[in-house]
Write a structure and sequence with these properties.
alpha/beta; membrane; Surf1/Surf4; 5 helices; single chain; five-stranded mixed β-barrel
């Protein structure tokens, strides 16, 4: 009844179904884990943005790698902006997805250590090789508040660290690179400036990171698991349909087969006898 399952076509189809089920289940768990990471990250961002700011020197030091638990942590720093060593970071977008540059200004702290401050976004000029029009940083001793971020690398950001760029232009915000350029100890990571607000709204402040949306990862996970459940159901449906079609074909073949002695067969026998009889019999 089910011998057709041993045919090459059905063996291949069954093997494909057996492979698809665990693959789809695994894809579902992959999306589920992405959902969990997104929820965890949203909670981390919300907690760190709500926390009271602490001195940046309590969170990082020269050569320090900012841990994920301190990302977006609000921190304060007091010092003097070193505008002579200010640089811009190429190919950055603002809240409206316009491509421009971020303004990175060293803030010299008491004792000579430096913390990098990302003051915000400015549009790029017509000439990409020219230094853009950047509003000056506040003069004198200032206290800033910002979100602590980790150093950027090609591995973490996917941005290539290009060489041979125009003067005072970089691709990544990296305290190690800036320490070599400045000849000063630079605290690990950098601050995204939130206070004080820039005069005239420029540089354009970097918006708070999104910590509300969770994406569609959970929906994708459920979708993959439904697909995995649908594979055996579909296989059973196809098997039953094939069995029904084969049974119907066998019944039709039996109905259309030769019968035991009919008028046609009797006539044929008589004709054959007459043909064999001698002439004049």
């Amino acid at each position: 009844m089910y011998r057709f399952l041993l045919s090459r076509q059905w063996v291949i189809l069954t093997l494909i179904a057996l492979v698809l089920i665990p693959v789809m289940v695994e894809l579902g768990f992959w999306q589920f884990h992405r959902h969990e990471r997104r929820v965890s990250q949203n909670a981390l961002i919300a907690d760190n943005l709500r926390a009271e700011p602490v001195p940046v020197t309590e969170l990082t030091s020269p050569g320090h790698t900012v841990p994920r638990a301190d990302y977006w942590r609000r921190a304060t720093a007091t010092g003097t902006f070193d505008t002579a060593h200010e640089v811009v970071v190429r190919r950055r977008t603002n809240a409206d997805d316009r491509v421009g540059m971020h303004v990175l200004t060293p803030l010299v702290l008491d004792g000579g250590r430096v913390v990098l401050v990302n003051r915000g976004w400015v549009p790029a000029g017509p000439d990409q090789k020219a230094y853009p029009d950047v509003p000056p940083a506040p003069k004198g001793r200032v206290t800033v508040v910002g979100r602590l971020m980790a150093d950027q690398t090609t591995g973490s950001s996917g941005i290539k660290d290009l060489r041979g760029l125009p003067p005072r232009q970089v691709m990544l915000i990296n305290s190690g690179q800036q320490a070599e350029r400045l000849g000063r100890p630079v605290l690990g990571g950098y601050l995204e400036l939130t206070e004080p607000a820039p005069a005239g709204g420029s540089p354009e402040p970097i918006p708070d990171p999104d910590h509300e949306s969770i994406g569609a990862h959970m929906a994708y996970a459920v979708q993959w698991w439904l697909f995995a459940a649908g594979v055996p159901v579909g296989w059973v449906v196809l098997v039953r349909r094939e069995r029904h079609d084969r049974a119907a074909a066998s019944a039709a073949q039996a109905a259309d087969g030769p019968s035991d002695g009919g008028p046609g067969e009797a006539g044929s026998a008589e004709d054959a006898s007459a043909a064999r009889a001698p002439a004049g019999a």
